[in-house]
Amino acid sequence: MVRHHERGPYRRRRPGGHLVEHELHDRLDDLMRDPYPHYARARAAQGLVRVPELDAWLVARDADVREVLRRTADFSSAGALRPDVMPAPAALAVLGGGFGGRPVVVTSDGERHQRLRAPLVRALSPARVAAAVPYARERAAALVDGFVADGGVELMSAYATRLPGEVIGRIVGLDPADVPLVVHGGRRAEELLFRPLPEAGQIAAAEDVVAMQHVLDRCARDRYTHPREDLATEIVASVSEPGHPELPLEQRHEAVAHLQNLLIAGHLTTTALIGTTVLHLLGHRRQWELLRERPDLIPAAVEEAARYDGALQGFRRTTTRPVTLAGTELPAGADLFVAFGAANRDASCHPRPDTFDITRDTPARHLAFGFGAHACVGAQLAREQLRVTVGELTRRLPDLRLAAERPVTMRPTMIHRSPEELHLTW
C-alpha cells in the first residue's frame, strides 16, 4: 500500500498565498503544451503520482479515471474548474459588476447536479442536435467560401472559432449579432482564470467577461417574460419560479452562470477539437489521403482524433473522505487531476496508443467527452460539427496541407487544448 498524505508545496501565484518560482510557471507551460510524456510516466508508476506543476495527484490510467468518475460521492466535482491563477483584486472588483458566480453543472454534485443537468439533456437531445446539423452545414460551407480562393488560411480564426459559436448561439437562442461578443468573452474568461496576465490585462479581460455576462442577463430576462423554443428558455425555467413580473436578481445570477458555462463549453471545446482534428489528419498525411478516398471513415476519424489528442485533457476532483485509489491512500480534501487525455493513451485499452489510426476497430471507447454522471451532454453536437468540418475540407480542399513555414505551437492549457494558430495552404 502506498501512503501519501502530504499536500504539494507549489501553487501558481495567488494574492496573499505562497509565491512560487518563475521556473514552476515555465514547467507548467511545458507540461500543458505536451502532457503526454508526463502521462506515460504516471501510468507506469506504482500508485498515483503527485505533480507539483498541477498541485494535484495525477490520475492517468483508464481504469482509475473511470473509477473516480463513477464514485461521485467520494470524489467531488466542486473544484472541477479551480482557477490556475487567482485574478488580482482590481480584476475581481470588475467581475463584481457582472453576473454569475453560482455553482454550475460541471461543478455540482448529487441532486443539484441532476437538477442542473436535466434541462441541458432535454435541450441537446438527439432530435434537437439533428435539427441543428443543416444549419451547421450551411455555416461551414459559407465560412469555407470565405477563404477557399485564397490559397491559404489561418484556420483557428477564420473557421474553428466561428462555426461552434454560431451553432451553439443558435441553439441557445442568442441574437446572431451578440454571438461574436459572447465567443470573445468566453475565451477571455479562460485567459483570466488559467493564464498569467499582468494586472492591466486582467482588468481588460474581466471587462470583456462582464460585457458577455450582461448580454446573457439580457437574454435571460427576455426569456423569462417571453419564452421561446430554445435552450435559454429551458435554462431560465430550470432556475426560476413563475409569478414575478421580472426575473429576480438571484435567479438572474443563476441563469447567467449556467448560460455562460454552457456557451463556453459549447464553443471553446469544439473549437479546440476542430483545430486538433485537422492538425493530426494533415500531420499524418496517409490518413488524410485515406479519408479523401473513403469519406465513410469520417466518423471514425473524428473519434480517433478525439482519443489521440482531446481538447479536454481532464477535470479536477477533490476527495470527500479518506479513500484508496490505485493503491494510494488519500486523505479527505486531496486534489486530483483526472486526466482523460492520459487514459486515452492507455495501452490496456488502446493498442498502439501513441499511433494515430483512423481505421481502429473500436474507436469510440475513449474518454474525450468524459464518462458517467458528468459525461458531456453536448458530445453529439460536437461530433456532428467535426464530421461536417472534415467532410467540407476533404471535399473542397483535398490538397490541404500544413504550412511548412509556420510551425504549430499548442496552447498551454489542459482545458481546451488546441493549436495557438493553424496555418494551412493548398
From TrEMBL:
Instruction: State the Gene Ontology terms under molecular function.
Output: heme binding; iron ion binding; monooxygenase activity; oxidoreductase activity, acting on paired donors, with incorporation or reduction of molecular oxygen
Signal peptide positions on this chain: none
Q: Does the keyword Signal apply?
A: no
Task: Check the record and name the InterPro entries matching this protein.
Answer: Cyt_P450, Cyt_P450_B, Cyt_P450_CS, Cyt_P450_sf
Superkingdom, taxonomy of origin: Bacteria
Is Metal-binding found in the keyword set?
A: yes
Q: Per the record, a Pfam family?
A: p450
User: Which controlled-vocabulary keywords does the entry list?
Assistant: Heme, Iron, Metal-binding, Monooxygenase, Oxidoreductase
Where does this protein have coiled-coil stretches?
A: none
* Similarity remark: Belongs to the cytochrome P450 family.
Q: What's this protein's name?
A: Cytochrome P450
